[in-house]
Amino acid sequence: MHFLTDTTWTELYLLAVAFVLCALIGIERQVRQKAAGFRTHVLVGMGAAGFTLVSAFGFSTVLGEDVNLDPSRIAAQIVSGIGFLGAGVIFTRRDVVRGLTTAATIWVAAAVGMAAGAGMVSLAFFLTALHLLAVVVIGPVVRKIPTRDHNRVLRVRYLDGAGVLRDILALATELGYSTLILGSRRLERDGLKLVEIDIRFKGRIPLRTAIPSVNAIEGVRQVQVRSDDEQEDDEDVS
Q1: Which domain holds residue 116?
Q2: What are the residues whose beta carbons fall under 8 Å from the beta carbon of 95, sequence distance 6 or more?
Q3: Measuring CA to CA, which of 79, 107, 143, 155 is 20 to 30 A from 224?
Q4: What sign has the CA pseudo-torsion 22, 23, 24, 29?
């Protein structure tokens, strides 16, 4: 057993490549304040690279005519294991799934680490570049493309004085929406004092996802979807 071998410097170089590239991915996640940030992605990438290096170089001393080496076996186990780690950052709240992008970046970090560990430096660099291009450059552009919800507002009718508006705004924040109140009116129906507001929900999650949760808030009497031109063919979803 020797501390330095013929492949030591190659191994350290490839491990450093994995560290640098996965650090770039992790920094992007950290800046966006995601659940898995710099440390997670660096550790995943270096771990994948380390396992791949062990698979490629770690058993060279036992090779012989009667011993064959299949480096792909460890690589296959890395792919299976990363699936469990990625699932750990995915969670569901009020029927809204979050963390899918972060889980996907963990997969990419593992792939970058494996590519670097296997000596495929150009592939590792290209994977990192494409990831940053997709998430940092193309992603924000795609989010600006108008969706079917861009001209829709929710008209919510609720009991006055019951703190319902506060609950609606808190729910919107929890689901990842920003809100804009376009107007409000006071009404009286069947002896009850009501407030009717038009509120716009802005976010990446489809508006239909928020409607059942808004409708379930105590004190909400009716929820309608309306377009900006306030046509009469409202869609009553209460």
Answers
A1: 8-143
A2: 209, 212, 213
A3: 143
A4: positive
